[in-house]
Specification:
The complex is a heterodimer. Chain A is an all-alpha fold. Chain A is built from five helices and no strands. Chain A has a domain of about 55 residues: Ribosomal protein S18 (30s Ribosomal Protein S18, Irregular), CATH 4.10.640.10. Chain B folds into two domains: about 90 residues, Alpha-Beta Plaits (2-Layer Sandwich); about 35 residues. A four-stranded antiparallel sheet of chain B has the order 2-3-1-4. Classes of the chains: A mainly alpha, B alpha+beta. The interface between A and B is medium-sized, with 16 and 22 residues.
Chain lengths: ~110, ~140
């Protein structure tokens, strides 16, 4: 289970052990296709909050929070959205507060 | 010790405006008498994300409070016994604001440092650019 999620999250970012010594990775941006014969590459996900420098995640900002809530009302996991751990922590707290005050639904879409 | 809070509460949609204003002013006066300050804004009628009791929408009110914990506790008690209030949420904000201010300060300090070398680097970058241009024109 853990192995599965790991491969899913890291995607094409794992070089083979026997490969060339890893040089410094290009910082950010989409990495080029590897010579390993991979047909597609994933764009590197970045944390929206770090990029846009949103420090305080507030429960009142429903528009922002709704981007990180699945259609079922669930909080989208970090591995899908690319949000960094500290921000995901604040985000999930804000979403839970927003649910409590009926700004976001607990389950399902907002009517 | 005064702390900062955000108190949001929802009243039933059929509440008359005067009554709502009366409720808000009583809450505010109870806070100010306890040595705090309060600023409220009415968001107006909004659709609720889910049904609360039998209501599908409600009037949202947000209060920015700076008061002691006991005073806020008293306000919460009042909200609980006030019948038209269907939901409320109190969030303490001062620690979060302190953290954000710290980060902002750090960021500003970094910006000032980076702004100076950038100004110095600009003419340096301009000279090599100009240099290859000169032979090309010859």
């Amino acid at each position: 289970m853990a192995e599965e999620t790991r491969t899913a999250s890291s995607g094409g970012d794992r070089p083979e052990r026997s490969g060339p010594p890893r040089g410094p990775r290009p910082a950010g941006g989409p990495g080029g296709p590897r010579e390993g014969g991979r047909k597609f590459f994933r764009r590197k996900k970045v944390c929206k909050f770090c990029v846009e420098k949103i420090e305080a995640v507030n429960y009142k900002d429903v528009r922002l929070l709704a981007q990180f809530v699945a259609e079922s009302g669930k909080i989208t996991p970090r591995r899908l959205t690319g949000v960094c751990t500290p921000h995901q922590r604040r985000l999930s707290r804000a979403i839970k507060q927003a649910r409590n005050i009926a700004l976001l639904p607990f389950a399902g879409r907002a009517q | 010790m005064n702390r900062k809070y955000e108190l949001m509460f929802i009243v039933r949609p059929d509440m008359v405006e005067e009554e709502l204003n009366k409720l808000i002013s009583t809450l505010e006066s109870s806070l100010t008498s306890a040595g705090g300050t309060a600023k409220s804004e009415v968001w107006g009628k909004r659709r609720l994300a889910y049904k609360v009791g039998k209501f599908n929408d409600g009037i949202f009110v947000l209060m920015m409070i700076e008061a002691t914990g006991a005073a806020v506790h008293e306000v919460e008690r009042r909200l609980r016994v006030t019948e038209p209030v269907i939901k409320f949420l109190t969030v303490r904000t001062d620690e979060e604001m302190k953290r954000v201010d710290k980060i902002k300060k750090l960021r500003d300090a970094k910006k000032k440092v980076s702004a100076q070398p950038a100004a110095v680097a600009a003419p340096v970058a301009a000279t090599p650019e100009a240099a290859p241009e000169a032979p090309a024109s010859v």
